[in-house]
Amino acid sequence: GTRWRTYFSQKDLSRDNLTPEFIKEKWQRFLPDPGPFEPTEFVDLAFFEIACKLAGTYRKGRVILAGDAAHCHSPAGGQGMNTGLQDAANLAWKLASVLRGHATEKLIDSYEPERKPI
Q1: What is the pLDDT of residue 9?
Q2: Lowest CB count within 10 Å: 61, 66, 74, 112, which one?
Q3: Which element (helix H / strand E) includes 4?
Q4: Residue 105 · residue 98 · CB < 8 Å
Q5: Pairing state between β 53-54 and 59-60
Q6: Long-range own/partner contacts, residues 40-48 (CB < 8 A, 24 or more apart)
Q7: Angle at CA of residue 118, ends 88 and 13, nearest 5°
């Protein structure tokens, strides 16, 4: 049969009110007729709370934070992994340029203002 994975973000959603009835109501509201479509089997009702965190600064001297050390995101959609990889790519070419003598260390200072807003 067909399986669907559904994510809902809702204020005041808790483990207690995450029920098959809640999911059915959401599906019916967001996916109106033509039906009839009614979910009948719920394999996994996983609940997670989004606890987004952001470091106050990404650099202090020779210590530079990237990925989950700098920021944490919702696991939905691979945001954390994708932003972490983009942090590394942004930082890698800058460090390489400085280490090879093609740029001054000031280039590394551009990492935080470029990446932190993301």
Answers
A1: 74
A2: 61
A3: none
A4: yes
A5: unpaired
A6: 43/3, 45/18, 45/19, 45/20, 47/13, 47/14, 47/15, 47/18, 48/75
A7: 115
Distance between CA atoms of residues 97 and 108, nearest Å: 9
Please measure the distance between the N-terminal and C-terminal CA atoms of the chain and give it in whole angstroms.
39
| Residue 47 pLDDT class (50, 70, 90 cuts) | confident
Model's pTM, two decimal places? 0.60
Alpha-carbon span 21 to 46, nearest angstrom: 15
Sequential DSSP letters for 75-91? SGGGHHHHHHHHHHHHH
**Residue 46 CB contacts under 8 Å (≥ 6 apart), including other chains:** none
Dihedral sign, CA of 81, 76, 3, 46?
Answer: positive
Least confident stretch, 16-20, 37-41, 86-90, 109-113: 37-41
